[in-house]
Amino acid sequence: MTMRQTLDFLLHDWLRVEDLLARPRFAEHSRETFASVLDTCERIAREKFAPFARLVDTEEPRFDGERVHLPRATHEAMAAYVESGMLSAAQDESIGGMQLPCVIEMAANAFFSKASVAMGGYAMLTSGNANLLMAHGTPLQREVFAQNEFAGRWFGTMCLSEPQAGSSLSDVATRALPDGADFEADPLGPRYRLRGNKMWISGGEHEITENIVHLVLAKIPGPDGAPIPGTKGISLFIVPKKLVDERGALTGERNDVALAGLNHKLGYRGTTNTLLNFGEGKFPVRGGPGAIGYLVGRPGEGLRCMFHMMNEARIGVGLGAVMLGYAGYEASLEYAKQRTQGRPITGAGKDATQPQRPIVEHADVKRMLLAQKSYVEGGLALELFCARLVDELHTGDEAAAAEARVLLEVLTPIAKSWPSEWCLEANSLAIQVLGGYGYTRDFPVEMYWRDNRLNMIHEGTHGIQALDLLGRKVVMDGGRGLELLAARIGGTIERARRAEGLAGHADALAAALQRLATATRSAWATGVPEEALANATPYLQAFGHVVLAWLWLDVAPAARGHALEPGKLAALRYFFAYELPKVDAWLGVVARREPLLREVKTEWL
Ligand SMILES: Cc1cc2nc3c(=O)[nH]c(=O)nc-3n(C[C@H](O)[C@H](O)[C@H](O)COP(=O)(O)OP(=O)(O)OC[C@H]3O[C@@H](n4cnc5c(N)ncnc54)[C@H](O)[C@@H]3O)c2cc1C
């Protein structure tokens, strides 16, 4: 079965995306327009991205001290992506968008992540950047910056991290000072001068587009001239690489943003990754050093603005992880069908006169393939489910939107982190299926693993997602998120109990859900955060596995009578037999507030 068949099944038979057509925002669409977007993206990904995935991995971006060089293929792939209109897929038609539902936009972008996640990175950053400006920018900032990004004339970045401030963004040290007495009179927004260093900035330098729009977090000093401590002091600025006027024309002035160097990464090599110096005087502008930046939103609200986009950005990261897993699954399945090795073990031992069998027929290889299938197809269901919730949030009625908001709060850490861990494991299994060949650069599976290894690190590390889930998301509003999720899971369990052959799975999920609820209460029983949160990562793992078991139990019945049914049921059975039992071990340490990790002394390590 192709990925497209699974995608169509999930979108139409499971998520019933056609119901969205009744909403005014999507009235101009039809099943056919959705299909045609998917067809176009599948084709561009196949023709312009996939053939060059290895090339952009081996021909890393190169900095000659002045300019950054990228393979020609990256420029061509990006031009084709821009041409497809996908940068503004979800935006209003009045500004050139397609008003596509988020769930279709994500599904269409999945093809690019699978074909070359590294080239797709530029597009994801640019639409994320422009979407943020549409939500928080002034009308002129939207027109000048966001619209030129949607048109693909300029690309965008997200500049949060600094060498000394990664997970702890409250410690960003980049400073922003008002630029002159008339700083508030600039039509592009209150104008500041920024000084500081931003580390790990993806897409921070290139010549794919004529300009780069950096969105930068920096601190405006308080009235006493000292930085305001904590996240409350952080503001958000548009810092273009080249200055522009209020009609969006380049003024010919280079802003004081300098590339200090490129980072040389394990994977994701096709996306430039940069250390940027803001305002150090390499490119003095308008009479002096200091990068010129325009405030977005109000002072002190920078992180809030950034986090506005986080749901979609994190679903995008999760989907990227799923697609890398998917690519490895397909490659290893194909290989396992061709590669012959070993003979069946029969009661009389092995018969060396018999031909060798394809390795796909060995039980252990089936284990590795079925595990991958359950991770990547389950992960795809998870991401599309969350994207469908985003549509509910934006276009559902009041009650549905309110419920979607709460569910997204608790599911977003899972959407980001579960595929980052388990679709990475899928990539590791894909290497194992290929044996020694999997460990070479002659096959793509090692590259998928290297690319995917990033996803547990960026957009909030695994550990930080775990703290967010157990420390905030499941306790906020008196535990409303977990309550709502449990109600949804309960609905699936009830339906499965009535369905043929699924009652045992329904009971297993009900028991796991019960243990999750109990462990959540036990973790917080003493009310001491250090005690509850010391085991946040096993909690995240258990929570994710319960969510995935639920989704499999929900998805499989929708496949009844479908050509995909046997495969979906096999993946469901695998997940319940081999994966769900792990939940007990993870929750054990959470529920008894296992003290080891608090007690262990640094000198013992
Ligand atoms: C390839 C790549 C691309 C990136 N792209 C961008 C980008 O475009 N823009 C951008 O702004 N950033 C980007 N980043 C930065 C990324 O978001 C950070 O690397 C990430 O937030 C972690 O920060 P750090 O590397 O400083 O690690 P640290 O924060 O030092 O973390 C190191 C380890 O300590 C753990 N840890 C830290 N604090 C805690 C805590 N309080 N409790 C428990 N554990 C903790 C972490 O989980 C992690 O395992 C990128 C990074 C990479 C590698």
General description of the model:
Helix 8 runs antiparallel to helix 11, helix 10 (398-434) crosses helix 11 (445-452) and helix 13 (480-498) packs antiparallel against helix 14 (503-523). The mean pLDDT is 96. The protein starts with a helix and ends in a 6-residue tail after the last helix. The longest helix is centred in the C-terminal third of the chain and has 37 residues, at 398-434. It has helices at residues 3-14, 31-49, 53-58, 72-84, 102-136, 139-150, 302-308, 310-338, 363-395, 398-434, 445-452, 462-473, 480-498, 503-523, 529-533, 536-558, 565-579, 582-591, 596-599, and strands at 62-63, 68-69, 154-159, 175-178, 191-202, 211-219, 234-240, 242-244, 250-254, 257-262, 273-278, 291-296. The protein is built from 19 helices and 12 strands. With 605 residues, the chain is of the alpha+beta class. Strand 8 (242-244) and strand 9 (250-254) form a beta hairpin. Strands 3, 4, 5, 6, 7, 10, 11 and 12 form an 8-stranded mixed beta sheet that branches. Flavin-adenine dinucleotide binds at residues 158-161, 166-167, 200-202, 265, 268, 273, 454, 457-458, 461, 463-464.
Strand fraction band? Answer: 5-15%
Mean pLDDT level: 96
Approximately how much helix is present in the residues? 40-55%
Shape: globular
Distance between the termini: 48 Å
Uncertain runs are none
Structure classification:
alpha+beta
Small-molecule binders here are: flavin-adenine dinucleotide
CA radius of gyration: 25 Å
| Count of beta strands | 12
Number of helices: 19
